[in-house]
Amino acid sequence: MQNSNEDRYLKKDGKTVNKKYVAKKHSKEKNVKLFSKGFTIFLIFLALASILYSIYLNNYMKISNIYITGNKATSDGEIIAEIGNPIGENIILYKPEKNEANIKKLPYIENASIKKVFPNLLNINVEENYPLFFQNSDGKDYYISNTGSLLGEDIGEFDKSLLKEIKGAKLRSEIGENFTGSEASINFLKAIQGFSYFNEVNQLNLENKAQIGIMLNDIDVKFGDLNDIDYKLKILDNILNDAREKSIEITAIDLDNGKNPIVKVSPDSYSDNLNY
């Protein structure tokens, strides 16, 4: 049998090329066409679509909890109703911006923000501006908001029994401005709202800036000046909590001494060294 080396070669474009080389090259060209760029992109798109569809159907990504903070005059129910009660909706497709605008339509809401906390939580924070104080001046009641802005004489439908009385402040006349020019008084009003005993406040006397007065139910509190506001409010909180735990009835508290407050208790109450 004649073995010819010429069988292993062929002519291609005027050149002598090994047949095995050509076969391998053709095989590679076929593979490249099979996994082309367009086909690869299609496969990636198909995979992502499958993942997103699975997430959409999965209960793990559906809203099941809503936390609301910052609201006092507006109930949780009112806020949830305004955003269409999104429980059960897919959190990925939920649009906070649209619903933030809806919350702001409520009477006392100044600002609202909604944050999605994956996989299933909505965190809603609101800022309110609602009537909280009043002061009688020239025989008329003027209303002041929780932020310290003057609301004027008309506040519409509101439970006025919930309002705290302010005495002695020099009221500004411009509606929407801070009710007083004293920044320290504004800070005091905002700070005291952060303590649980604020619910028991009947009256705040701001007439004498060197001796602010607080009426807490039947307890007369001499707050002193408006220096170290946060410190003295915390001291007052400690005194009231301690007295409550020991069933001691307090009649007066003098915080004007700073670190050495004076506490007067009822003669009918248990009396002991309170060590304040």
TrEMBL record:
Domain POTRA: 61-129
Pfam family, one: POTRA_1
Segments traversing the membrane: 34-56
Predominant location: membrane
InterPro entries membership: FtsQ_DivIB, POTRA, POTRA_FtsQ_type
Swiss-Prot/TrEMBL keywords: Cell cycle, Cell division, Cell membrane, Membrane, Transmembrane, Transmembrane helix
Gene Ontology terms describing biological process: cell division
Subcellular location field: Membrane
PANTHER family found in the cross-reference section: CELL DIVISION PROTEIN DIVIB, CELL DIVISION PROTEIN FTSQ
Name the record gives this protein: Cell division protein FtsQ/DivIB
Species of origin: Anaerococcus cruorum
